[in-house]
Write a structure and sequence with these properties.
Layout (H helix, E strand, L loop, with lengths): L3 E2 H8 L2 E3 L5 E2 L1 E2 L9 E4 L6 H6 L4 E5 L10 E5 L2 H12 L8 E2 L4 E2 L4 E2 L4 E2 L4 E2 L4 E2 L4 E2 L4 E2 L4 E2 L4 E2 L4 E2 L4 E2 L4 E2 L4 E4 L4 E4 L2 E4 L5 E4 L4 E2 L4 E3 L5 E4 L4 E2 L4 E2 L4 E2 L4 E2 L4 E2 L4 E2 L4 E2 L4 E2 L4 E2 L4 E2 L4 E2 L8 E3 L4 E2 H12 L1 H20 L11
Parallel strand pairs: 4-5, 5-6, 6-7, 8-11, 9-12, 10-13, 11-14, 12-15, 13-16, 14-17, 15-18, 16-19, 17-20, 18-21, 19-24, 20-25, 21-26, 24-27, 25-28, 26-29, 27-30, 28-31, 29-32, 30-33, 31-34, 32-35, 33-36, 34-37, 35-38, 37-39
Antiparallel strand pairs: 1-3, 2-7, 22-23, 39-40
Length: 353
Amino acid sequence: MPAFTVSDLARRLNAEIAGDPDRLLSGVASLGVAGPEDLTFFAREAMRNAVEGTEAGAVLAPRSFHCPGARFSVLKVDNPQLCFARIVRLFHPEPEPQPGLHPSARIGTGARIGESVSLAEGVVVEDGARIGRGTHVGPGTLIGRGARVGEDCRIGHAVSILHAVEIGDRVRVHAGARIGTDGFGYAPGPSGAHKVPQIGGCVIGDDVEIGANCTIDRGALDETRIGDRTKLDNLVHVGHNVLIGSDCLIIAQVGIAGSTRIGAGAQLGGQAGIIGHLEIGPGARIAAQSGVIRDVPPGATHGGTPAQPRRSWMKAIAHTRKLPQLVQRVARLERRQGLARSGAEEPADDGTA
């Protein structure tokens, strides 16, 4: 495993050093488990107790950080968490796949394979597909007829990239994802539901990451699109004709129904459900497990089921917590009203109502 001095890392991060610049670091770890040769990070005051007790050799911290008597060196930066994410790959470099085509890989007629491409065992590249320079395709993956995969992509094992799908450069697709599957389109008829052919496209932008077992439908007539630098966690479903802007973050088990538009920079919490034909504005945030049935304005934060603006949602939660006491109060009032009508006296309140 590679090792770096504190001063080596400071040069890479434009960091200010407090403590020993020659301390040698050979790993990264969280505050609670880091040892004398590990780098860790401190991002907010809630972590103060942990950082004061850490055994780490060095800590990435905000430029305003002070910890008198610290045993560790400090690398002061503008964004410790972001810098830590950048530094991790120095200590744990990702293995580079060796270019080449496994003997069991099957390449169809008219398919074009770029330079330095790696096709693992059992890969199938169908007729007319194209794979760009430096891309790695994992075992058992299908690149469908006429599909296009850009340069320097990392496609995991058992992925399906179906016919005519377009994937940009530097895209990462994790195991088991299905891209370009048929959307859920049916027309009711006297003999049951009749499938509507899904003949649209599916376009994935540059620097997108698609988590394990995600499913992304092709459009019915038009295109399903995912914008540059958007990240999908595992088990996300994107319905047909959905348009997702750039730089969005979509957490695990989100479901987005057909023809919804999600603006750039939006964030969707885990297990949120979005019905079809909605507009989620740029920069909007949807809380986990929310059910969104109406448009969400740009920059707004909504939560709950049905999803509502954050202030209303929090008020509703607060009122819900008071329901047991309110039920008791109503019961007492009804009892008093009944006694008043009958002329009887109310017994002493023993607090058990």
